[in-house]
UniProtKB/TrEMBL annotation:
Signal peptide: none annotated. It comes from Dipteronia sinensis. GO terms for cellular component: chloroplast; cytosol. SUPFAM superfamilies: P-loop containing nucleoside triphosphate hydrolases. HAMAP family: Shikimate_kinase (MF_00109). GO terms for molecular function: ATP binding; shikimate kinase activity. The lineage of its organism: Eukaryota, Viridiplantae, Streptophyta, Embryophyta, Tracheophyta. Keywords: Amino-acid biosynthesis, Aromatic amino acid biosynthesis, ATP-binding, Kinase, Nucleotide-binding, Transferase. GO terms for biological process: amino acid biosynthetic process; aromatic amino acid family biosynthetic process. This is shikimate kinase.
């Protein structure tokens, strides 16, 4: 048995070139899932554990299933285990999720915070509360983007003073260097999602809460894509400053999924933990 190496710790090659992995969708009648407990650095186990989950051929998700978004029992177990392990290395440092609008910072952040026994905060929500409940869209309308950015910086400053938190930042938080001064007190993780996938997601949920992407008419996907492209060109360098990156393209390939939108938030949160652990290890932090 050999580790595949590379991006994710969640896959292994067994014997002949047949991949067994951490896959929430069953494409075959039966699926085997192998988890390397050594890689998880579990102190009480030293050998590989074979986890066999049995899926009916017509079923889209494993029979063993719990939680939202089709997260399997195995996925939840892995997340919880990894969360405990990483929490013990963090010494209360905050985790800041950065990435484009709709990349899943809030969705993944909530699950991640539970796994670490951390609190969760969304900087947009924090700004809205500071503004007496005025929505982000309304703040943009009333004061413009720079007005919103001032409050966003204030929110990040306040959040940086509270330990043991996962913070979902707004997509544009990375463009102000002062925000990095606050976020650098913790660990920053970039959720790297292809623009096409973001545009599909945003076109499906609408742009009412995301003023920078709001479009009046026309093909929702194309307009979202074009605006995301413009924003991403301005921001990609800033996102690259993050301490760790979770690439959904790499993760989808590891999980043998054709569409990055099929990756569960639980699997993404687990990969965030794997990348944080790698960052801590590589940097002796
Ligand atoms: N892995 C995922 N699987 C399915 N839906 C997701 C996933 N991640 C995010 N979503 C959905 O995409 C939308 C945007 O996600 P959100 O977490 O609000 O992104 P962000 O906070 O980065 O703007 C939400 O409707 C959310 O439910
Ligand atoms: O990318 C951006 O500039 C913004 C992203 C939004 O947050 P999400 O990334 O949580 O959608 C919100 O802060 C505001 O609409 C501006």
């Amino acid at each position: 048995m050999e580790s595949m190496g590379g991006g994710s710790a969640l896959q292994f090659r067994v014997g002949q070139p047949k991949l067994f992995g951490f896959n929430h969708k069953c494409k075959k009648e039966h699926s085997l899932q192998l988890i390397d407990l050594n890689d998880l650095k579990l102190k009480t186990h030293t050998n590989f554990k074979l986890v066999l989950s049995h899926c009916h051929k017509d079923s889209q998700t494993p029979i063993l299933q719990s939680g939202n978004f089709g997260a399997s029992f195995d996925e939840n177990w892995l997340l919880k285990t990894k969360g405990k392990e990483v929490a013990s290395c963090l010494n209360g440092r905050n985790i800041y999720l950065v990435g484009m609008m709709g990349s899943g910072k809030t969705t993944v952040g909530k699950i991640l915070s539970e796994s670490l026994s951390y609190s969760f905060n969304d900087s947009d929500d924090y700004v809205e509360q500071a503004m007496g409940g005025t929505s982000v869209a309304q703040i943009f309308k009333q004061g413009g983007e720079s007005f919103f950015r001032e409050y966003e910086t204030e929110a990040l400053q306040k959040l940086s003073m509270m330990p043991r938190q996962v913070v979902a930042t707004g997509g544009g938080a990375v463009i102000r260097s002062i925000n990095w001064r606050y976020m650098r007190q913790g660990i920053t993780v970039f959720l790297d999602v292809p623009l096409d996938a973001l545009a599909r997601r945003i076109a499906a949920v609408g742009t009412d809460t995301r003023p920078l992407l709001h479009f009046d008419s026309g093909d929702a996907y194309t307009k979202a894509f074009m605006r995301l492209l413009t924003l991403s060109k301005k921001r990609s360098e800033a996102y690259a400053n993050a301490d760790a990156t979770v690439s959904l393209l790499t993760l989808a390939a590891c999980l043998q999924l054709e569409d990055v939108l099929d990756i569960t938030p639980t699997a993404i949160a687990t990969e965030v933990l794997v990348q944080i652990e790698k960052y801590l290890r590589d940097n002796n932090r």
